[in-house]
Write a structure and sequence with these properties.
Elements (H helix, E strand, L loop, with lengths): L51 H8 L7 E3 L2 H8 L3 E5 L2 E8 L2 E7 L5 E5 L2 E3 L6 E5 L5 E3 L2 E4 L4 E4 L21 H4 L1 H4 E2 L5 E2 L4 E2 L5 E2 L10 H10 L15 H9 L5 E3 L10 H4 E3 L21 H5 L2 H4 L19 H6 L14 H5 L10 H5 L2 E4 L3 E4 L8 H7 L4 H5 L5 H12 L6 H13 L5 H8 L7 H10 L7 H10 L5 H10 L1 H5 L3 H7 L8 H10 L9 H12 L4 H13 L3 H14 L4 H13 L3 H14 L4 H13 L3 H14 L4 H13 L3 H14 L5 H12 L3 H14 L4 H9 L5
Helix pairs in contact: 13-15, 16-17, 18-20, 20-23, 23-24, 25-26, 26-27, 27-28, 28-29, 29-30, 29-31, 30-31, 31-32, 31-33, 32-33, 33-34, 34-35
Length: about 750
């Protein structure tokens, strides 16, 4: 399994706000790194003299205003007069007090306090404000401002986050250095010091400046100074390859894991990041539409536009970030017959909407809008085809009903079938059905996913998504063969996902898979090497290229609880439970409400013979998360293992109360109850388990054992026979049946 799939934690993502307002700028400053470096910062203002038009387009762009100091002209109205507003269960204030911009809110303590804000990220429609704290940390306030409506609001809406939680503005989930800074500034270095848990973050320039996208600017500036007027002959200038353009944009506009903290223009995306794509989580819908806050890049890579070679700058001015033409004019640049691989479209005839109707806009149907961060409406870049039939079948939203909210999916389906007929029966519809089945773990999806791995059939994105979803079937020979073949795919994303999905085979001791994965440690792309290093971590040579790559990634992300959890898993694989325990303690301290950290800690403490301490960790989790079924269940198991049966019964009962459909909780309640002589309670619990899992032979077998202990041999015999009926070769049931006294 990959590094993400192993976790049960759903980690929040701070919004990437790269929004602008026209007609304002400030003096951009280059902040030099604290450590010596061969890299020389070039501020965007340096480019103004030779590139005035590009500079003017950029200076008021979303990128130029991605982050900036607080400014009286832009920000005073948000704080003066004082704004009082509701934020979840709190009543907060934004005010200008003692010559200082302040937000009065719950912070590091439980009482309302005034916190100064000194920087702002984003401009419109969401501004988020930064407060500096200790050890070089900057934290992002969740109280945010919409300048258009002059309203303050909680960026998390009804999710009423409280001090002590990872996602509260004081927690690590809202730490600027780790989660925001890289994509709001130019050439940022996080510079986290593990020993002191502190940051010494530097940047070349606040906001997204010229050097964020253009490589070798220092050489270019030096050559121009030495050769005035020689612009056309400048050897430092070269046109970036299309893939590099995508890589640069995707470095921020994607949901990804940073492996190095060192991305720069010209770098290969998959040498710096592991990208999350459509998987079994709910981050994407099965047709490729974004569901969670996924930004644009992954959806775009799954689109027909991407497969046909369209680039971001084909639609967006690279300096202003605005679209280069308004409305349908932009799409019709290609869909007017100018390009042989783009079908000719007549908008009114194609859309079946009037010329001036919003429904006649290409983006209304093929780039539907989802609102994130309560205010930020973003167009989906998957360029998907609206399909109301898939809404009916799978609950996937369609653009028709996003607009016509008063109509049903049935109404929309009738209309699309009438207008487009058999054209709706396209490959993408079938693919969506396969992906939806795979997301649910349905066996029927296996064969179709294997078919999707063909380069002739699908783009690399969909091949990678298929490979990533095949992890569920490690024992299937056809799946294994297909994944092994995908290790030779020409795209690193496919190879990475294939490596991840082969991990269960490694865990089960498959020597063939182990042998096949070892060469992946020397793959040309770092994302593949790191994936292979993680899968083979127990015997990994730490001095190898892949070993160093993995350690770099683990160390770079060690300032977040999920990073500590991974370091702990790595230490456990390397037979270092004490090292793992230290990392798990930090993870739990930094994110006390996340169950996996304490679950793992309890297991490690048990390994170390400190069972009672493990139970205490689970009890603390149950206190913090009283509605967590899994926490109560795990506590019951730990108590049962420690022979504390009566408390175990209480924990299992609480788990079944929280989730009456939890088969394992009922089953274990049955086992624990009989251990303290509660026969009827045991039988009742096992009966509930059997009703939930009628094909599982272990349950009637345990019922037979309970009845046998109670001397109810006739009933025990019937239960044992039921187990054998479900599984004729189930030897424990046959042995019990043979051992029972013969019927009278």
């Amino acid at each position: 399994m990959n590094l993400v799939r192993q976790l049960l934690v759903v980690l929040g993502v701070i919004g990437l706000v790269l929004l602008g307002v026209a007609g304002w700028t400030w003096s951009h400053q280059a902040l030099k790194p604290s450590a010596p470096s061969s890299h020389v910062a070039v501020a965007s203002a340096t480019c103004r003299e030779c590139h005035p038009a590009e500079y003017e387009a950029w200076r008021s762009s979303h990128h130029a205003l991605a982050e900036r100091p607080m400014d009286a002209k832009m920000d005073r109205a948000a704080f003066d007069p004082t704004h009082v507003f509701k934020a979840g269960s709190k009543t907060n204030e934004a005010r200008f007090h003692n010559s200082e911009f302040q937000i009065v809110t719950l912070g590091f303590k439980t009482n309302l306090e005034a916190y100064p804000v000194e920087r702002v990220i984003g401009v419109e429609p969401v501004r988020q404000f930064l407060t500096t704290t200790t050890n070089g940390r900057w934290q992002v306030q969740e109280d945010s401002y919409d300048p258009k409506s002059d309203q303050w609001f909680d960026v998390f809406g009804a999710d009423d986050r409280q001090p002590g939680e990872w996602g509260h503005w004081t927690g690590r989930g809202m730490n600027w250095n780790s989660t925001c800074a890289e994509c709001h500034n130019t050439r940022l270095q996080k510079n986290y010091d593990d020993a002191t848990d502190s940051y010494h973050t530097t940047m070349d320039e606040m906001a997204i400046g010229c050097a964020a996208c253009h490589a070798s600017l220092q050489e270019h500036a030096a050559w121009q100074q030495a050769h005035p007027g020689g612009r056309e002959k400048d050897p430092t200038v070269s046109r970036a390859a299309p893939a590099k353009i995508l890589d640069t944009c995707g470095s921020c506009h994607s949901r990804r894991e940073d492996m190095t903290g060192n991305f720069g223009p010209g770098h290969a995306f998959f040498d710096e990041y592991q990208m999350q794509i459509l998987d079994e989580t709910d981050a994407w819908f099965a047709d490729g539409q974004a569901h969670g806050e996924d930004y644009e890049f992954a959806s775009f890579l799954g689109s027909k536009m991407s497969r046909r070679g369209v680039l971001c700058i084909d639609c967006h001015n690279p300096h202003s970030a605005k679209t280069i033409l308004p409305g349908n004019d932009l799409c019709m640049r290609c869909h007017n017959g100018s390009f042989s691989n783009a079908p000719i479209i007549q908008p009114p005839a194609h859309s079946h909407h009037g010329l001036a109707s919003a429904g006649n806009q290409c983006i209304a149907c093929h780039m539907p809008v989802t609102v994130y961060m309560q205010r930020h409406a973003r167009h989906d870049h998957g360029f998907t085809i609206p399909d109301p039939l898939l809404t009916k079948e799978l609950g996937i939203p369609n653009a028709c009903n996003r607009c016509h909210t008063d109509k049903s999916a049935d109404w929309a389906a009738v209309s699309t079938e009438k207008w487009y007929g058999q054209k709706m029966e396209r490959l993408t519809r079938e693919r969506t059905r396969w992906m939806a089945a795979a997301q649910k773990g349905e066996d029927s999806a296996k064969t179709k996913l294997i078919e999707m791995l063909s380069p002739e059939r699908e783009s690399f994105y969909w091949r990678a998504a298929a490979a990533g979803l095949l992890w569920r079937w490690p024992d299937d020979a056809a799946v294994k063969a297909a994944l092994l073949a995908s290790l030779k795919d020409n795209h690193p994303l496919v190879r990475e996902k294939a490596v991840n999905s082969l991990e269960p085979a490694i865990t089960s001791g498959d020597d063939e898979v182990t042998a096949a994965l070892h060469p992946m440690l020397n793959d040309t792309s770092r994302n593949v090497r790191v994936a292979a290093a993680w899968v083979l971590r127990d015997g990994l040579d730490l001095q190898s290229t892949a070993g160093r790559d993995l350690q770099t990634m683990l160390d770079f992300n060690a300032d977040q609880p999920i990073g500590r959890y991974r370091k702990a898993k790595f230490a456990l694989a390397r037979h270092d439970p004490n090292g793992a325990l230290a990392d798990l303690r930090k993870a739990a301290a930094w994110d006390p409400y996340s169950p996996p950290f304490r679950f793992e800690m309890a297991d490690v403490l048990t390994q170390l013979g400190r069972t009672n301490e493990g139970i205490q960790e689970l009890q603390e989790l149950c206190r913090l998360q009283p509605q967590s079924v899994e926490a109560q269940f795990k506590l019951g198991l730990a108590l049962a293992d420690a022979q504390q049966i009566e408390p175990a019964v209480a924990a299992f009962k609480q788990a079944t109360k929280l989730d009456p459909e939890n088969t394992l909780a009922w089953y274990n309640l049955g086992l624990a109850s009989i251990a303290i002589g509660e026969v009827e309670e045991s039988l009742a619990a096992l009966d509930r388990a059997a009703a939930l899992a009628p094909k599982e032979p272990q349950i009637p077998y345990e019922r037979a054992r309970t009845l046998s202990r109670a001397g109810r041999y006739t009933e025990a015999r019937a239960a044992a026979k039921q187990a054998l009926k479900l599984q004729p070769d189930f030897k424990p049931a046959q042995n019990l049946l043979d051992a029972l006294p013969p019927p009278e």
